[in-house]
Write a structure and sequence with these properties.
By secondary structure, the chain is of the alpha/beta class. The chain folds into 3 domains: 118 residues, Udp-n-acetylmuramoylalanyl-d-glutamate--2,6- Diaminopimelate Ligase, Chain: A, domain 1 (3-Layer(aba) Sandwich), CATH 3.40.1390; 110 residues, NIF3 (NGG1p interacting factor 3)-like (Udp-n-acetylmuramoylalanyl-d-glutamate--2,6- Diaminopimelate Ligase, Chain: A, domain 1, 3-Layer(aba) Sandwich), CATH 3.40.1390.30; 104 residues, Alpha-Beta Plaits. The protein is built from 12 helices and 15 strands. Helix 6 runs antiparallel to helix 7. The chain starts with a helix and ends in an 11-residue tail after the last strand. The model has no long low-confidence stretch (mean pLDDT 97). Belongs to the GTP cyclohydrolase I type 2/NIF3 family.
Length: 364
């Protein structure tokens, strides 16, 4: 198996197009065309983790956090980032990161957090826009189902938790082929009228090339007429954070103790309690203070995330309980998610989980 096959599996689950603009997910170092010896899964690609990869015979490290965020103008070993780069390249170890793209998929990092709490009826807290397009095409009535099925198979037609969604309107198309054409119906040089179906389907932007290829392969016409337009619709399955329901209501302090236990947190920083039961819970892996207002407007009783600043705790304003469990603690189960993705795709492949705890924060 080649490194690129591992990458393809990860990006089929969490497309790079879903990452935030500031991010640097993807292959950081290495040659995707090389054969894989084994894969080491980690939250952070630190020097210790690279040493572990060397010792365990792994030439690919899959991390959640990109070791390189900005450009490197010099690589002299002065910083830990430069030392990781030097060691990885020297030992021919590829480093790949799936970061905010894995955060933003509905079954990503936040879903791992939600599963630890047993949350049900989960939905994306802040869906992203700019990720959907619509295809309009025109097909002879007799061939409409063939084209429709091909587009569905390529990934078009999903709206929320519904699949195979399309709109179909009957009409009449006209065309006249030139002297060197071979029309499916009609004769070259003569205007032809054909009963056609106008077919419309939505698809995520990262599937566009495959969708158009499926259209061309299934459509009977020599020249396929179609339009692709960008949509402003929010993609309900992709975005920041999740919100869901606890199986049963809990006392606020009992809930905080439960959260601390489930996430093995060294401590939980929290806002004043409101004297109410907790049922609806919002959460976000990593630095999630930007979603606080969204969690409040969604009616959450509590919001679990990390990296809240002092003044941001005031923003709870007795409308919600903030539980800051720590950045590492909120994302620690990402390794399990990586393992699940790869073992589901490659049933006879066993990636290794790093034994290094990369959390740079300690608690007394």
């Amino acid at each position: 198996m080649k490194i690129k096959e591992i990458i393809q599996a990860l990006e089929a689950y969490a497309p790079l197009q879903y990452q935030e603009g500031y991010d640097n997910a993807g292959l950081i170092f290495g040659d995707a065309g090389r054969e894989v010896t084994n894969v080491l899964l980690t939250l952070d690609a630190t020097e210790e983790v690279i040493d572990e990869a060397i010792a365990r015979g792994c030439n690919l490290v899959v991390a959640h956090h990109p070791i390189v965020f900005g450009g490197l103008k010099k690589i002299t070993g002065k910083t830990y980032v430069e030392r990781v780069a030097i060691k990885a390249i020297r030992h021919d170890i590829a480093v790949y990161a799936a970061h905010t793209n894995l955060d933003n998929v509905r079954n990503g990092v936040c879903a791992e957090m939600a599963s630890r709490l047993g949350l049900t009826d989960c939905r994306v807290l802040q869906p992203k826009t700019g990720l959907l397009k619509k295809l309009y095409t025109f097909v002879p009535e007799a061939d409409a189902e063939k084209v429709r099925a091909a587009l569905f198979a390529a990934g078009a037609g999903d709206i929320g938790r519904y699949s195979e969604c399309s709109f179909n309107a009957a009409g009449q198309g006209t065309f006249r082929g030139g002297a060197d054409t071979h029309p499916y119906v009609g004769k070259p040089g003569e205007r032809h009228f054909e009963a056609e179906i106008k077919l419309e389907v939505i698809f995520p932007v990262y599937l566009e090339s495959g969708i158009l290829q499926a259209l061309r392969n299934s459509h009977p016409y020599e020249e396929v007429a179609f339009d692709v337009v960008m949509l402003d619709n929010a993609y309900q399955e992709v975005g920041s954070g999740l919100i869901g329901l606890l199986p049963e209501m809990m006392d606020e302090m009992d809930f905080l103790r439960f959260v601390k236990e489930q996430f093995r947190a060294g401590c939980v920083r929290y806002t004043p309690l409101r004297g109410r039961q907790v049922k609806k819970v919002a959460l976000c892996g990593g630095s999630g203070s930007f979603l606080l207002k969204r969690a409040i407007s969604a009616g959450a009783d509590a919001y679990i995330s990390a990296d809240f600043k002092y003044h941001e705790f005031f923003d709870a304003d007795n409308q919600i309980v903030i539980a800051d469990i720590g950045h590492f603690e909120s994302e620690q189960f990402t390794v399990e998610l990586f393992y699940h993705i790869l073992t589901e795709k490659f049933r006879n492949f066993a990636p290794l989980k790093s034994t290094i705890k990369t959390n740079p924060v300690n608690y007394l």
